Every structure is written in structure tokens, then in C-alpha cells.
Amino acid sequence: MKKVVHLAKDRGYANFGWLQARYSFSFGNYYNPEKVHFGALRVLNDDIILGGTGFATHPHDNMEIVTIPLEGGLAHEDSTGQSGIIRKNDVQIMSAGTGIYHSEKNAFADRITKHLQIWVFPKVRNIPPRYAQKSYPPESYQNRLQVVVAPDRHDEALWINQDAYFWLGNFEKDQKVTYQIQKQGNGVYAFLIEGQAEIAGETLHARDAVGVWETDNLKIKFSENSHLLLIEVPMNLNSYR
Length: 241
Description:
0% of the residues lie in helices and 55% in strands. By secondary structure, the chain is mainly beta. The chain has one domain: Jelly Rolls (Sandwich), CATH 2.60.120. Strand 2 (12-15) and strand 3 (19-23) form a beta hairpin. The two termini are 28 Å apart. The model has no long low-confidence stretch (mean pLDDT 96).
């Protein structure tokens, strides 16, 4: 097993007044040559948006973009005609493909919104843009891992244009779980949203992460009530076409 540890305190940070953002990987004005990507995982941003503000319409292309609200809600509009609000317990995905314009704004004027936005390099470039979202009630991932994004679990998960899997779990203190890698050659990036856990032999606290590869599984033990995100991705970037 190979691994890399990313502590919360070492993430990039930007404060734009209306937006506070912490970057697990190089993004915008934050650049760290040792944190450009983890395999096909390119971006993991941890954002706080003030009420009544947000990201104006802007473009993307050839990226799989996953948004996970943690508090409040985001109002979404895009050039495919999709619009709506995504809230805590929802997961949203966009395939930017050949090109898409979208905006994301705090849906509320009187409270903050917190969310994670994750970018994954696509498996196939220049596909038609697409959008989808799905709700996952907390009981669906209580003391278990729930797949929320996958290339092949259409009854459970949102489809992604990549051999990647996203899992969420809420675990009580002293629970244990072993995650099995879904596709040979993939790695997994474990991002502890809240709590404390021992993952791959490392003690992690809220917003810490560990990435592992060249292994078949990942052992996790929770020492506090915890909220966990696992992102399994291909590690070989040369396979994209």
C-alpha cells in the first residue's frame, strides 16, 4: 500500500468576503506542486457561501463535477435548461463534456451555505453535457457506506463518466468498516467531513484526508461519531481518451 496524508490545516485558503474556500488540491491562486491531483481526482473544495451571494454564470468543459451540500442549499441553473435547489442530503453531478455554463448561488438570503465541490477528470472527452441529482436520507448511510456516484450502479447512484465511486457514511463511535476497492488499479481518497477516525493507520480529524493506492482494501475505525466521504478513482491518467 502507498499513501499520502493531507491535513486540514495544510489546505489552501481563500477569503473573497462572500466566499470562504479551502482547497485540498491546487486551485485558483493556490498552487502546491505536491497537491495537484490524486489520480483522476482533480479538485476537492470546501466552500462557505454567504446568504444572497454565489458563483455567477461561468463555463466548464471535460470535467465531472460533483456537489455535496453540507448545510443550507444551492440554487443551480445551467445552459442545458436545468434549474433547482440542492440541499443537505442531496448529491448533484454535472458532466461538463463539450461545454456547459452554470451558476451556483446560496438559495437563502439569511444564512450561509456549506458544500463540497469535487472535480474528476472524465473517462471519455467531449460527451454531451448532462446533469443529475439525487437525495440520500441519512438513514441510508447510518453505520454503513452508501454509494452515491458510480459508473455502474444506476439503481443506487448517480452516473459518472469515469471508473470512479463516491461513498458517504455516518458512523457511531467504535464502529469499524473495511472498504473494498471496486476496480483494480484504482486508489481511494478518504475525506473525513466530521469526527475522528483511524484510516489506513493514520489518525484523522475533521477535514483531514488520506489517499491510498496499490491496495485491495482500506480499513477504518471510528473513535468519534463521524461523517465520511470516500472517493475511489483511477490512478493512471494516461488512460483517458
